Amino acid sequence: MKLEDRINRSLTQRAATVILRSELAKLGSSAQVGRVLARLVDEGKLVRVSKGAFAKTRVNKFTGKPTPAGTLEDIAAELFQKLGIAISPSQLAEEYNSGRSTQIPMGSVVNTGRRRISRQITVGDRTIQYESHHR
């Protein structure tokens, strides 16, 4: 069985939306896995959201084109969980959720606590931003 077939089967059997390159590393060499992932991105079966992180796609019923199978917030939360990074809602989101503010937070901001993160997570033209308020 070809490596591309094994990776395709592995992707379809996973319930997760986010796939890390490291999860597929055992299927072949680094260069082979990289070529297959690049081909899957070109075919529209995956979309790259961060370095070494990809998200599954589904066909948009209005445009007929592949789009990520989740929102930026869902994909980011799943990616952070897989990476073992604890995040919490931003200060603005927390104020809105607790009723202290009526301003609805528009941007995608997460609180990383004391941890400094430089990983850029992008889906389409939207990017996760970080704030680090110590609690």
UniProtKB/TrEMBL annotation:
InterPro entries: DUF6088 (IPR045738). Pfam families: DUF6088. This is S-adenosylhomocysteine hydrolase.
